[in-house]
Design brief:
Elements: H1 2-6, H2 26-36, H3 40-57, E1 60-61, E2 70-71, E3 79-81, H4 83-107, H5 112-115, H6 121-125, E4 147-154, E5 160-166, H7 173-186, H8 188-193, H9 200-212, E6 221-224, H10 233-243, E7 246-248, E8 253-256, E9 259-264, E10 267-270, E11 273-276, H11 299-304, E12 309-311, H12 328-335, E13 347-349, H13 353-361, E14 366-370, E15 385-386, H14 392-404, E16 409-413, E17 419-424, E18 427-441, E19 447-449, E20 454-458, E21 472-475, E22 477-479, H15 508-535, H16 548-561, H17 567-570, H18 574-583, H19 591-603, H20 611-625, H21 632-656, H22 661-685, H23 692-701, H24 705-711, H25 718-727, H26 735-748, H27 760-773, H28 782-803
Parallel strand pairs: 3-22, 6-7, 6-11, 11-12
Antiparallel strand pairs: 1-2, 4-5, 4-18, 8-9, 9-10, 13-16, 14-15, 14-16, 17-18, 18-19, 18-20, 20-21
Length: 820
């Protein structure tokens, strides 16, 4: 096989494809032989399919410190592990998870490991991960850890070594799931024929374990996220959707009477379990980091009261510290009566005199790293580094810091890790990798190991500190079974699932984001219609013909008033002004700015939007971000294309979204924005003595040309136009139609109080509807249109005050709200 002939391993480094004798391993040969049967064109199609799903669904991550998202990078080749080898990994990871749970149980309980001298106290208290307020409080649900992960690499001896333990808030499981989806679609026959173990049983066991830890039979499980600017927000949204959890941020939660509740549009709803993806230091600003905007005030008190299960429990990151690594072999014998089945890198904590002397004597041959994780500055916050790799000033700073506070540092054996095949330039190359393996606590008290994991491949020779940054990609992990693998999914037995016709309670934050997603898209459409009016042949005809110049001036004035153009740009030629109004991202009211705002709102409620919706929205933004068009035809083509994309987004929301509360807020936003915009264009083009051009443009802006011409063969007249765009209940673009739909939505939304009184948003909608029903088109002037516009804006404010979060205390969190 030509690929194998060109494959070069690194001298002295174990490789996953080539064994110690220089022969290709059998399971890799099976995979590569099956892959090689395809033609070069078919190979390209396989790889294109592997990346198309990533692009279409917006799989992404964010590098820490950067605002923009990066498209997910996946290697077209999986890491393949045999059944026998996987059994050793599985046993070792399960043992290590049990050890970590036992260590945490002791350190937050009787602390015998410290009092009996098995562990120095400074190893426990030296870092920021020890959450002292929870010491002595048994964890609700009985566990400190529900999810554990170990970063593994194959050492020089061919054995798997533990590089790091992940107990704070292990990430990557959702990306492992996404990687599997991509490669199983790219190579369906190979995937089925090689008996690859499925991932669904692991996630099912994890979900069942969380449910069993709660007090109620049907608990509400929430995934607590730092928000859309988290590096792994896509993964968190994906897992919440896949597992059926409610995705919440800190401001979505409130503690009342020792229990945690979600702020929803229907009031407070109890949160039984929180899967925490926020670092422990930020979960409670009352008792921990007071500057945190990510946590929930009073959450630690709720944990101590047993009112909410939080996993992994705040403070569990304590056992991630490198200072602990050197003690783990002895702790395994002390707590489990066993030797570690998976060794970790030899580590010496400099807080002990003998170990410090050893590190100083061999400092040029060891990697120096910070002993504790968490926020910090200077050398003690860095990962493993060789002194030879540092600049002279950095070496001196590191030595000085080790002299001042030796307990903040460890020395670690330098281990060069194994390599695996990665696809490069039409062939395969050996690249170092790290494998993260997950263990989930099960309902029966055991551990379920994910058959596979999250693999990261680096182009750098040292893979111990691989993160998803530059030059790093991920890979699926195939664990092969020795027998056919049944098709397994997260489907539950028939007798365990109750029929539901609504998707559950809608958090106030999600309602807010869906509402503004709808408003931004509708506003972008209205702006596009104005730009199209600016570029029609009528607008570029002679200004003296049929009064076109006055109409053009009104359109330009509206674009300025809406923030799509500044006054200087409005005076430029129509083509140039149109380009600016569409693509100038610096103008807050331009189409580009509005679509970007829509995407930001959508990203904050991503778990509630379909892949097709997200794909269309990203494509719309990319289309607007492309090189600016030149001539009139190109501008019109871009405007028409953007209008079609927005129409497709509207169609998806109308045809594919369940008619639940989330859809209602998205639709109400469109109705309010459309009603407001219609009032505004009516005041401009159909108020006092409008021309035929004015009325013609107005009908274009509200997409009612065909309806008007079918009804009125006599030609343009101001009263019929006003009636059609403002008062006609049968015209889906009229203000009357929008208000009627708003009233229906508000009547269907949940109420906070069952006192028989009409709430303010519905009261306003009914009042507006009454005014419209009693109005006459002949008497409808600019003043009345302005009054309707202002009433609709008041309705928007009333909706926000009633249903959305307002600072630290939203209306739905009042004590009069029902608790469920």
């Amino acid at each position: 096989m030509d690929w194998l002939d060109r494959y070069q391993t690194l001298p002295g480094i174990p490789d996953e494809l080539i064994d110690r004798q220089g022969d290709a391993r059998g399971h890799w040969l099976r995979f590569l032989s099956g892959l090689a049967q395809a033609s070069p064109r078919e190979m390209d199609e396989h790889f294109a399919l592997a990346t198309r799903h990533i692009r279409d669904t917006g799989v992404s991550y964010r590098i820490y410190g950067e605002e923009g998202e990066q498209s997910w990078r996946i290697n077209p080749l999986p890491l393949i592990l045999s059944h026998a080898e996987w059994l050793d990994i599985e046993e070792g990871v399960a043992q290590r998870a049990e050890l970590m749970e036992a260590v945490l149980k002791d350190l937050y309980g009787p602390a015998r490991l410290v009092s009996e001298g098995h562990l120095p106290a400074a190893v426990v208290t030296g870092g920021a991960d020890f959450v002292r307020p929870l010491r002595g409080s048994p964890p609700p649900g009985g566990r400190y850890l529900h999810l554990y992960a170990a970063d593994l690499g194959r050492g020089p001896d061919g054995r798997w070594w533990v590089l790091d333990d992940r107990t704070q808030a292990p990430s990557g499981a959702g990306y492992a799931l996404e990687n599997r989806l991509v490669l199983s679609r790219a190579y369906p026959q190979l995937y089925a024929g090689m008996n690859v173990e499925r991932l669904a049983p692991f996630f099912g066991a994890f979900r069942d374990g969380l449910a069993a830890s709660a007090e109620r039979a049907e608990p509400r499980i929430c995934l607590l996220t730092p928000g859309p600017y988290s590096e792994t927000y896509f993964e968190q949204a994906h897992l919440a959707r896949y597992l059926g959890f409610l995705l919440v941020e800190g401001e979505d939660l409130v503690v009342r009477e020792g229990k945690a509740h979600v702020r929803t549009i229907a009031g407070l709803k109890r949160a039984d379990v929180l899967w925490r993806r926020v670092d422990a230091d930020f979960v409670d600003p009352l008792e921990l980091n007071s500057a945190s905007r990510l946590g929930v005030p009073g959450l630690l008190e709720a944990i101590r009261a047993g009112g909410v299960v939080v996993t992994n429990l705040p403070g569990s990151g304590l056992v991630e510290s490198r200072a602990l690594l050197g003690f783990l072999p002895a702790l395994a014998r002390q707590l489990l009566g066993q030797d570690l089945k998976l060794p970790n890198i030899a580590t010496w904590w400099c807080g002990q005199p003998r170990e410090r002397d050893l590190v100083e004597a061999n400092i040029d041959n060891l990697a120096i790293a910070g002993a504790f994780r968490g926020p910090g500055r200077g050398p003690a916050s860095a990962g493993p580094r060789l002194l030879a790799d540092l600049e002279p000033a950095e070496r001196e700073a590191l030595r000085a810091a080790m002299h001042d506070r030796p307990l903040d540092f460890v020395g670690q054996e330098v281990v060069r890790l194994s390599t695996m095949p990665a696809w490069r330039d039409g062939g395969i190359s050996a690249k170092p990798f790290v494998l993260r393996v997950y263990a989930a606590a099960t309902a029966d008290g055991g551990w379920k190991i994910m058959p596979g994991g999250f693999c990261r491949i680096s182009d750098k020779p040292d893979a111990r500190a691989v993160t998803m940054g530059e030059g790093v990609e991920s890979a699926d992990v195939w664990v092969l079974s020795d027998r056919p693998v049944p098709r397994v999914s997260l489907m539950a037995p028939k007798d365990k699932v109750h029929v539901r016709r609504i998707p559950g309670d809608l958090p106030s934050r999600a309602a807010d984001n869906l509402f503004w997603l709808g408003r931004y898209l509708e506003r972008a459409e209205a702006t596009l219609r104005l730009v199209r009016g600016l570029k029609t042949s009528l607008m570029e005809s002679e200004a003296t013909v049929r009064g076109a110049g006055e109409t053009l001036g009104r359109i330009q004035g509206m674009l300025v008033a809406w923030g799509a153009l500044d006054k200087k740009a409005a005076d430029s030629p129509p083509t140039e002004a149109a380009i600016r109004a569409v693509g100038d991202g610096e103008a807050y009211g331009s189409v580009m700015a509005l679509v970007r705002s829509a995407r930001r709102a959508a990203s904050s409620t991503r778990e509630r939007l379909s892949a097709d919706f997200w794909k269309l929205l990203v494509e719309l933004e990319n289309r607007l971000s492309a090189d600016q068009p030149g001539g009139k035809t190109e501008v019109l083509d871009r405007v028409e294309g953007a209008l079609q994309a927005i129409s497709a987004l509207t169609g998806l929301s109308q045809d594919n979204m369940i008619r639940g509360d989330g859809w209602r807020f998205l639709d109400m936003a469109r109705r309010i924005e459309r009603g407001v915009n219609t009032c505004r264009v009516m005041r401009q083009f159909a108020s006092e003595d409008p021309t035929a051009d004015d009325l013609d443009v107005l009908l274009d802006l509200v997409d009612s040309q065909i309806t008007y011409r079918a009804r009125y063969l006599e030609g343009m007249a101001v009263v019929p136009v006003r009636d059609l765009v403002m008062l006609d209940p049968f015209n889906p673009r009229s203000v009357a139609f929008q208000v009627a739909r708003l009233t229906e939505h508000l009547q269907a939304l949940p109420r906070l109080r069952n006192d028989g009184m009409i709430e303010e948003p519905l009261r306003l909608a009914l009042k507006i509807a009454g005014e419209i029903d009693s109005e006459e088109a002949a008497r409808l002037d600019a003043k009345k249109a302005l009054a309707l516009e202002q009433r609709l804006m008041q309705l928007s404010d009333a909706l926000a005050a009633r249903y959305f979060l307002q600072g630290s205390s939203a209306t739905p969190t009042k004590k009069t709200s029902a608790l469920a």
